[in-house]
Amino acid sequence: MGRRGQAVPPELDKQVEECMELVRGEATPRHIKRGFDIAQAKEGVILSGAGTLLRGKDIREHLSGCEQAVLMAATLGAGPDTLIRRWERADITRALILDACATQLIEEYCDEIERQIREEVTAVGFMVTGRYSPGYGDFDLEIQPELIAVLDAERKIGLTCTGSLILLPRKSVTAVIGLGRCLTERQDACERCDLRNRCEYRKDGNRDECTGLDKR
Amino acid sequence: MNVLDWIKDKILIFDGAMGTMLQQRGLAPGALPELLNLTDPDTVTDIHREYVLAGADVITANTFQAHELKLHGEHSVEEVVAAGVTCAKKSGARFVALDVGPLGQLLEPMGTLSFDRAYEIFRRQMIAGEQADADLILIETISDLYEAKAAILAAKENTHLPVFCTMTFQEDGRTFLGCDALTAVITLQGLGVDALGVNCSLGPELLGPVVETMLRYSRLPVIVQANAGLPVIRDGLTVYETLPAEYAAHVLGMVRQGVRVVGGCCGTTPEYIRLLKEQLTAQEPVCAMPLRVSACTSGTKTVILDNATTEIGERLNPTGKKKMQAALRNDDMDYLLDEAIEQVEAGAQILDVNVGLPELDEPSLLAKVIREVQGIINAPLQIDSADPAAIEAGIRVYNGKPVINSVNGKREVMERIFPLAKKYGALVVGLTLDEDGIPPLARGRLEIARRIRDTALSYGIPEEDIIIDCLVLIASAQQSQVKETLSAIRLVKAELGLKTVLGISNVSFRLPGRELINAAFLAAALGAGLDAAILNPLSARYREILDAYRVLNDEDKNASCYVEKYSKEAPKAAPSAGIGLALAEIIEQGRKDQSADAVRKLLETMPPLDIIDNEFIPALDRVGKRFEAGEIFLPQLMQSAQAVQNGFAVIKDRMRTSGEKREAKGKILMATVHGDIHDIGKNIVSMILESYGYEIIDLGKDVPAEAVIDAIKSHNIRLAGLSALMTTTVKSMKETIGLVRESGLDCAFFVGGAVLNEEYADFVGADYYARDAMESVAIANRFFAVK
Questions:
Q1: Contact A7, B630 (CB under 8 A)
Q2: DSSP three-state, residue B105
Q3: Which of A39, A45, A95, B82 is 20 to 30 A off residue A51, Cα-Cα?
């Protein structure tokens, strides 16, 4: 919402809390995930079995040293979209806050899924990378329809993608998580960083530029 | 024997999954199975044949996604459908079903696919299926009731084939788009399918509640094609948890409750169907005894009129309402939508929608308003018009089973309206008047009601879909008639057993204290047995009567709603913070509920234009500076702008009555470009520009370049703002600006949106880049050279 450290007036704070409750009430979080063996290729990484090529140097780097990858898709369902659309008419400030709350909620939900995956695979001796989504770095959004098809996400969780590559329902995420026996410090360092899901370096594909100062 | 004859006295068995079988044979996940109809038809036919041998009566052709959107023009729909049906026929199937799945794109307003476009895509698939000689159409795995409607209309209007339709429900008993089983049954059966039910998503053991609801309400055969339980990944393959014997046992249980059509979905194989067939050989069909209820639906909600007092909101109607008339003339949808939201929040369960103004194109306007209203509220709608063309336009785009308001006893009117009610499956309000007017006595009105019912039945409309309006007369003019209305309600209920509805408010016309008369009449009508009242849900007196009556009529169980609402002491008007503040402070603090009052007060001493220039703008500027300096953040800026807008509304009203004119500072067109549906950012910018006194022509989201060009021409626009949020839609921003320039229009562009920056702004050919809403104001101020 454009906040940069300003104090939050109590009335607004209360509204944010109310909005979070409203969004939680309307959300029907669903996800699907599927593991693949992967093979490095010149243009990116191939998901064996599906034959899908994840194109780009950034995704290749993200998955370097990985033997497998988990493809995941998650959505809050159509409820929050309708809620926000309705409030856009009645009170746009509230709509903006609801929108931000829904974004927060889908991120939390993805964190939870990621945590589950981490628990499952560390038990069998794997390390994991963080989740990496189409649109980060040079990992092009063009891949969205194929990811949805490979996961059968339309049927399984009601997730679709428009011709302009917008995921619908709006509060949805697709992502790739790498699994390896021995991942580098840096891949893992990002994992431990609190800012990883907001990290501009990661989103722009310039992870190397991160000095680690933000890593708490 | 055709399939409809078969299901009259036999259980019908469909096949199991196709995708599962293909994946077992090595089809890669994500690949389009329908292309195998062309590249490997023998494999497809082999799978079908296995199902025939297992005992399936119907083979579902491999055409689930054989439509334009998924085939991408690489192969024609006709080619893939014909090959698919041929594969199914070759298997020796008794019946072949054209399989029609969802389009994979969400319909407006959730997505960008229009209802009409969806209809066209389905139409092509349906026609191809009939031409390929399929025996029936199976529309399945549908989550959006609206999409089901498009598909059903496409099937019924363009083919002669029987239509079966199944929807897909999740663990919470709803589809992905929120439709519940009851709403599905009521709506689909209204649309005239031949069988309806559920498929996919869950195993039969978890579908119990959904299937029970369907059996309780469906007059049509109910279909169950469940998954083989929940999917789990084992060794990289998706497998399903429910074993064939378990599956068959569960389905047999459902058949014993009355399910008539069975089969399998994801994860089921010929083994499942073989066991199912074995279990069912000795099983006679069981007749379910469905409840017959008067019900209407939206896309996600059902309102049942039986054993309840139903409240229908009357406010979406321009008759006698200047503001509503102006909103309709100016295409001010926000005003209408506010009215809709307020009524539902006050307690209306159904909203009447009437847009009849003599100079407007009623059919297209009614369709538009219905699309807008159903996009944001989930109460069913009552489509109200005297023009049959408008009624048809409205009910066609309606998502759900609507109420039509109205027919009457005139032969000509019934002949026009009943076929529409039958085709689209609507409830119909029948007014007790005919060629000779309104009968003065209750008996006369009863006779017209009887005629309306008998005529409706002759069109195949069930009697529970008829609601009789015994008509209110004005107490001040025809006082003795008021009692006749009440008697007529009693007669219609007692002798015909039909539901009744009544518009309440007219009774008090020309009397003082109208609310009091209205409330007394409402109570009397409810006492006479009225089922539904059309009224103003915002009236406190009506509210009290309804709340109290629902206790007395045993609807509000244990009076819990009533106690909750009326046991609290009336809240003392708490002195709300900020009362007595100056207008400027109210704006700066974003107290948007107080600005209107403050403006009204100020208008006693200050001319309207001075308030704008000396109060609104300087206060907003101060807020804007604090925003730019990072002292406050966006929601606070927006609340200040909303406070100004609420004040503006008061000034506009005043100027309208005084006839005073105010030149807008400039006219700005705003749009989110084609392909993009993120419009909250654009709406924020529009609002803030508007609060600075600019006139905004807002074209909405997903706006094609042609619409931008047309609007620039027709509104004589010199500055336009475009928004795009995705890298993918920045392209269409460039196209839009390019096309405007090519057509030689002199219009400057400012652009914004999450992915935009100076570089992109140059790339798309924009004149200005606006980082945020305040920057848009600065750009507009410079452009129109005002300060």
A1: no
A2: coil
A3: B82
Dump strand ranges (E) for B665-772.
667-672, 695-698, 719-723, 748-752, 768-769
A31 sits in which H/E element: strand A30-40
Distance, CA of B721 to CA of B658 (rounded, Å): 33
**Which residues, including other chains, have CB under 8 Å from residue B633's CB and lie 6 or more apart?**
A1, A2, A3, A4, A6, B627
Q: How close are the terminal C-alpha atoms of chain B, in Å? A: 81
Residue written as token pair 């921003």:
B733
Token couple for B760: 């992109």
Tokens of A94: 């509230």
- What domains can you pick out in chain B, each with its CATH number? 3-280 (3.20.20.330), 309-565 (3.20.20.20), 583-656 (1.10.1240.10), 667-783 (3.40.50.280)
Residue whose tokens read 């007060």? B601
Architecture per CATH, A10-202: 3-Layer(aba) Sandwich (3.40)
- Whether residues A6 and B630 touch (CB distance < 8 A) is answered with yes
User: A-chain residues within 8 Å CB-CB of B176?
Assistant: 28, 77-78, 157-158
* Three-class SS state of A72: strand
Where does B327-424 show beta strands of DSSP type E?
Answer: 350-353, 381-384, 403-408
> Cβ separation of A97 and B28 shorter than 8 Å?
no
Q: Beta B667-672 vs B719-723: how paired, if at all? A: parallel
Beta bridge partners of B381: B351
Calpha distance B484→B442 (Å, rounded): 5
Backbone CA torsion sign across B16, B17, B18, B24: negative
The pLDDT value recorded for residue B750 is 97
pLDDT along chain B (787 residues), means of 10: 94 96 89 95 97 98 96 94 98 98 95 96 98 98 98 98 98 96 98 97 94 97 95 76 95 97 96 97 91 97 97 96 92 91 96 95 97 95 97 98 98 98 98 97 97 98 98 93 96 98 95 95 97 96 96 94 85 55 90 91 89 90 90 90 91 82 87 91 93 92 95 96 90 95 95 89 94 93 79
Domain boundaries, chain A: 10-202
Of A90, A152, A169, the CB nearest to B338: A90
- Nearest neighbour of A96 by CB, restricted to B170, B377, B680: B680
Question: Is any Cβ of chain B less than 8 angstroms from the Cβ of A179?
Answer: no
Partner residues linked to B58 by β-bridges: B14, B95
Residues A8 and A16: their CA atoms lie apart, in Å, by 10
Q: Do B635 and A35 touch (CB under 8 A)?
A: no
pLDDT given at position B30: 85
pLDDT of residue B787: 41
CA distance B47 to A24: 44
In chain A, pLDDT over 70 holds for what percent of residues? 82
Model pLDDT, residue A50: 84
CA dihedral B734, B736, B737, B740 (to 10 degrees): 150
> Which residue, B146, B141, B138, is CA-closest to B194?
B138
Residue type (1 letter), A40: Q
**What does the block give as tokens for B399?**
């998502």
How far CA B30 is from CA of A50, A52, A145, B100, in Å, comes to 7, 9, 9, 18
CA distance B247 to B170: 18
* Contacts by A198-205, CB closer than 8 A, 24 or more apart: A202/A130, A202/A132, A202/A136, A202/A137, A203/A135, A203/A136, A203/A137, A204/A136, A204/A137, A205/A58, A205/A136, A205/A137, A205/A138, A205/A139
Quote the CA–CA distance of B436 and B428 in Å, as a whole number. 21
C-alpha–C-alpha distance, residues B781 and B692, integer Å: 9
Give the residue from B124, B168, B119 showing the smallest Cα distance to B143: B168
A203 touches chain B (CB under 8 A): no
